[in-house]
């Protein structure tokens, strides 16, 4: 689970410093590593900055290198990159074409394409990257004009990609929200998911206590509270909701 789907639907709270760091890195064309536990807002924060960045590509990490190469090639083709669009057969979906190519072929095509049209590449949800993946991204990393933002839960999950993202000066470690920020986020999420009609006297303090300042968990617990299976009349049954959420984060 690389990100929390609900976080993007609720305004970001208490992440101004981190947002400014990412904005500055994007402005300078510098690479960056963003670390934090599941639900800490990494993906939502990065997307809030890169959504308006010209030529930015958001790539989900895959354990198999060929899948990542095919995903990146598909994105380049979808954006109309001439190095790819002219290779795709008429009427054939770019994704299908990319998956049919060999990894060696895709590596060469991608590198040559990025050499003439560098971009901002966001590599999200990194977990156990292989040496082969490191060698490919190393070759991309050093293309003039290229910048990469890597997102992972902790340095150990980077696998071999730790060789690229080793400098603490270019690392953002997500920190928990303050009590007041967490309370504000709960109120925004409760409004967003229509929880005001329920009894929040017990639910609110339990969410804030268990989330421990983790914005993604606050938002997701509020989202789940809308599901009838977690409700008994006006009461929200916190225990089963919390168990299901934590099981999801461990996936």
Overview of the molecule:
This protein is an alpha/beta fold. It folds into two domains: 7-173, Rossmann fold (3-Layer(aba) Sandwich); 179-249. It is built from eleven helices and seven strands. The protein has helices at 16-28, 42-50, 65-78, 82-85, 94-100, 103-116, 131-141, 179-192, 203-211, 215-224, 238-249, and strands spanning 32-35, 56-60, 120-124, 147-152, 171-173, 231-232, 235-236. It has a five-stranded parallel sheet, sandwiched between helices. A two-stranded antiparallel sheet has the order 6-7. Helix 1 crosses helix 2 (42-50), helix 3 packs antiparallel against helix 5 and helix 3 packs across helix 6 (103-116). Residues 1-8 have low confidence and may be disordered.
The name of the CATH topology of the largest domain is: Rossmann fold
Per DSSP, what share of the residues sits in E-state strands of 2 or more residues?
Answer: 5-15%
Could you give me the name of the CATH homologous superfamily of the largest domain?
P-loop containing nucleotide triphosphate hydrolases
Q: What percentage of residues falls in helices of 4 or more residues?
A: 40-55%
SSE order, one letter for each helix or strand? HEHEHHHHEHEEHHHEEH
Which residues form runs of ≥5 with pLDDT under 50? 1-8
CATH class of the largest domain: Alpha Beta
Give the CA-based shape.
elongated
Largest sheet: 5 strands, parallel
Mean pLDDT: 89
DSSP summary, beta strand count: 7
Strand line-up across the major sheet: 2-3-4-1-5
Distance between the termini: 6 Å
